[in-house]
Amino acid sequence: MRGEIYAYWYLRRPGYVFVAKSYMPRGVKGESDLVGYHGKTLAFVEVRTRTVKEDAAALPELSVTQEKERMVIRTAQRFLAERHVEQCPVCFEVVAIDNHPGQPPIVRLHKDAFSPQHDRPYSKKPASLLCAGRSWHKPTKSKSGRRRLKVAGEGCS
Fold first, then answer.
1. What's the pTM?
2. How many other C-beta atoms can be found within 10 angstroms of the C-beta atom of residue 12?
3. What burial class does residue 104 get, using C-beta atoms within 10 Å of its C-beta: 0-12 exposed, 13-18 middle, 19+ buried?
């Protein structure tokens, strides 16, 4: 079973309502595996899957690099602009799936795995420093004339 499909059904149980799957913005490199609401928060979910082999045991969530984080954030900004989302709390999550042949998958959900304000999702920073539920506002024009979204608030909530 594909990781995105398994993650979709896994997250539906606690109440996620998805509005997009495999979203790719026009003209920009990037993709969001799953986009959905959990309560009033819009979650952009990156899904990472690995088949666990006896000789290699890398955690799939560790494959989310800084470049991938930046790409997911840019894709989220584009999604919000294209869908004309006025203001909404946003979070970035990672679902890690370990496939063990002949056994049910092991799933780990990393809520608020990264944010536009911090460098690494799985750093040694205390969980209280990871920003949760950022509010994004309607796109504005920058000095160069390009549209961009602003993050409301400075520090972590």
1. 0.71
2. 12
3. exposed
